[in-house]
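Researcher: Hi, I'm a grad student and pretty new to this. My advisor asked me to get structures for two proteins we've been looking at. I'm not sure of the right format, so I'll just paste the first sequence and hope you can take it from there.
Model: That works fine. Here's the first sequence with its structure tokens right after it:
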Amino acid sequence: MGAALPVTRRPRSRGRSVTVPGVQTIGVAIAIPEPHGPELQSWRERFGDPLARMIPTHVTLLPPTEVADADMAAVEDHLRAAAAASEPFGIHLRGTGTFRPLSDVVFVTVAEGIAGCELLEEKVRSGPLGHRELEFAYHPHVTVAHDLPQHVLDDAFEKLADYDARFSVTGISLYVHGPDGYWRPVREFRFPGSV
């Protein structure tokens, strides 16, 4: 899928994008469709996560990654090809999990569809995005509370323990992190045969 472009990741302050001329911070994810996405985003707000409104509900395929503006066309071509080589699959979200004590995150678990997420992540994090290293092993999930006090994380873990939702994955979305700290979807790449 083409040569790898230089991709870097610099530390960012929580929720704020570091603006570098000629560079965008992007992410690639599976968007969680309605009604599940807004419902989980509402839960994240109720838990007091200040980033709840800034981050659409998603399953990450490529974490925040800096890409030169000049390389964005190659990145979009790569994502288009990755989507074209994929097919729809189902995801079943059920119950909660946590990365504590390693990371103060509570999430809704991907109970079914893990293999489909892993295949997509591998396709996305190749070619021009192939140099993007991960801090942790890839583990598909939907974050509902992040960097909050322990009692709030415990509350999130308990309140969503019975959460259950199913949906079909029909494409991947490219997000850009704005200077205002908001992640915005800029392009969706649909799988062949998806409606």
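Researcher: Oh nice, that was easy. Here's the second one.
Model: And its structure:
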Amino acid sequence: MTQYDEWANTELPTEPTTPSNPEEQPSDEPVIIGEWDLTEATEYVAYHAVDNEDFLSSDNTIQVRFLNVSKRTLQRAYKGYLIPIEASYLFACVLNANFNDTTVMAQRGVAGFSVDGISFTFKDWAKKELDDLITDDIRDLITEANPSIDSNNGRIKWVTL
């Protein structure tokens, strides 16, 4: 059967074509972008992170962005420590939850906003540095991966008396 385009002058293929999207891969192959295996990351997050909805619903670009920031922040906070990849996965979830569409405004200093009668009000304490978002679970993973280093979970904080 011959099909024609809207001007009836070019023959169109009749058999179904497969999409040529480079990001679309067979479901049995892992999705690897840069140094991150996103298939492994999403599987780990799905079963080990409590607040994983924002990370799992993000597209690949956003997931890689949060994984990169997660790794960089943990390496800066724990200089000289081995950072397990699982810690990066969990911290990426924490960052994604704290920088989603709504709470990113609090991180930027917005006190409140309203959309169609629905109001959001943020407290002054909602704005935090990235290092402050590292949870105890993530600290424990890093401590367990570095048993030879004894330094109170690797965090040094200034205290003013």
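Researcher: Is there anything I should tell my advisor about the second?
Model: You could mention this: The CA atoms of residues 132 and 159 lie 15 Å apart.
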